[in-house]
């Protein structure tokens, strides 16, 4: 019996899980191919919601999608592990050993996994640009593991501030969507914490948002940046544009002008670069930020059997911004194109990005969106309800795509019930 064509997808983010699900439902279900998804976590979250997990305001466990459950329902396999290398000649990827996070005990040895085609969708991480002290003294929220780690630390420091009647200082570097939304979400977390304060007055949360450029949210029109600053300042966030960070230590950040920003918790959310592991992928050509250079077909320059999509890919002929929107479209493109290429060697079509605009939501406080032509909506009336609804609809679209119509509807109902029940629960 001939061996099935092996497609390995590395990375279970927006693009990776969407591709695994679609291919599983087509060539996996029919038995024409063996689809394997690899990720270092056991659950998927929608990356634009990572700041909610970091702040602890994500509604419930329904916002996490188990890779194992998704695999069993959609005809693909899931392997836990973190990629460490790619051998183009042997057509294998290497996975790091898995250790118990509590004891450090080895659970699973390092492994190799063979492929006939591999799709790299390992996302991106913040870029510290080699700034002294950042790697040692700052936290990142590039993935669910990071977000959960930050939330653990945030809860402990919040508890300490409650007990000692102290202020909690948090400084966030990076005025893009991640840093800006995190600043608002942390204030929302404090509002929720006040419901369970046992009569104690909640501690003062002092957040400073540092942006090296002239304004926050540079991907949006200037009017949105100005409105976001106004809203953030209204809830107590100090926004400092033109603040270039030159170093970090255990007490805060040092700015280029020599001044200091004290902070108990220090978050780095500036810049975008591919994970450093791309340097271990058999000498594949990389962009300046470490992304894998790909052709319009999303194949890397040197190998027809290696694909890259999402934040870790750089289309040399026509670059696309590293957004969830672009990643999702690339996953859909490959889901349509790979079966015919795999079975009959049909030529792969070029990927074309269709910009549908952008949206940013500052918790429950406000939100704005832009259409491709630059028209702005949201803000003002009802605190930007229209933009926040669009942000929610994009998330629901993602859930429906992965769950299907029945489970997607149930998921929405569970979330809505949680919204109605949760505010009525008080422990004071």
Automatic annotation (TrEMBL):
Against Gene3D superfamilies, the record matches this protein to: 3.50.50.100
User: Which part of the chain is the FAD/NAD(P)-binding domain?
Assistant: 5-331
What this protein needs as a cofactor is:
FAD
Task: Quote the protein name from its UniProt record.
Answer: FAD-dependent oxidoreductase
UniProt entry keywords in alphabetical sequence:
FAD, Flavoprotein, Oxidoreductase
Concerning SUPFAM superfamilies, the annotation shows:
FAD/NAD(P)-binding domain (SSF51905)
Domain of life here? Bacteria
Belongs to which family? Belongs to the NADH dehydrogenase family.
Q: Name one GO biological process term.
A: aerobic electron transport chain
UniProt source species: Komagataeibacter swingsii
Any one Gene Ontology MF annotation carried by this entry is:
NAD(P)H dehydrogenase (quinone) activity
One short Pfam name that applies is Pyr_redox_2
């Amino acid at each position: 019996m001939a061996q099935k064509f092996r497609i390995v997808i590395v990375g279970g983010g927006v693009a990776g899980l969407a591709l695994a699900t679609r291919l599983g439902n087509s060539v996996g279900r029919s038995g024409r191919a063996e689809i394997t998804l690899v990720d270092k976590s056991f659950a998927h979250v929608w990356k634009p919601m990572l700041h909610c997990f970091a702040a602890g305001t994500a509604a419930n466990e329904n916002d996490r999608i188990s890779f194992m459950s998704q695999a069993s329902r959609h005809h693909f396999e899931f392997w836990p592990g973190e990629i460490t290398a790619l051998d183009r000649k042997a057509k294998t990827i290497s996975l790091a050993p898995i250790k118990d996070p509590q004891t450090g005990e080895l659970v699973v040895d390092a492994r190799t996994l063979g492929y006939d085609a591999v799709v790299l969708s390992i996302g991106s991480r913040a870029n510290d640009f080699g700034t002294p002290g950042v790697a040692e003294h700052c936290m990142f929220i590039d993935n669910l593991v990071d977000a959960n780690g930050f939330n653990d630390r945030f809860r402990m420091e919040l508890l300490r501030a409650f007990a000692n009647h102290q202020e909690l200082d948090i400084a966030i570097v990076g005025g893009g969507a991640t840093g800006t939304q995190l600043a608002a979400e942390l204030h929302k977390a404090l509002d929720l914490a006040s419901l369970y304060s046992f009569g104690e007055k909640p501690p003062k949360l002092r957040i400073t948002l540092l942006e090296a450029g002239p304004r926050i949210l540079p991907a949006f029109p200037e009017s949105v940046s100005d409105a976001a600053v106004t809203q953030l300042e209204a809830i107590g966030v100090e926004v400092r544009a033109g603040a270039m960070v030159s170093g970090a230590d255990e007490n805060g950040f040092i700015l280029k002008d020599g001044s200091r920003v004290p902070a108990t918790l220090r978050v780095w959310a500036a810049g975008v670069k591919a994970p450093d592991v791309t340097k271990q992928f058999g000498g594949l050509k990389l962009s300046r930020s470490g992304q894998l250079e790909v052709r319009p077909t999303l194949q890397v320059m040197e190998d027809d059997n290696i694909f890259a999509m999402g934040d870790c890919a750089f289309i040399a002929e026509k670059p696309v911004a590293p957004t969830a929107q672009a990643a999702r479209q690339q996953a859909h493109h490959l889901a349509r194109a790979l079966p015919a290429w795999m079975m009959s060697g049909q030529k792969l079509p070029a990927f074309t990005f269709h910009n549908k605009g952008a949206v940013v939501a500052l918790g429950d406080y406000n939100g704005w969106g832009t259409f491709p032509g630059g028209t702005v909506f949201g803000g003002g009336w009802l605190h930007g309800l229209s933009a926040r609804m669009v942000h929610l609809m994009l998330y629901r679209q993602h859930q429906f795509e992965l769950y299907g119509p029945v489970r997607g509807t149930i998921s929405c109902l569970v979330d809505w019930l949680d919204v109605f029940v949760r505010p009525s629960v008080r422990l004071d």
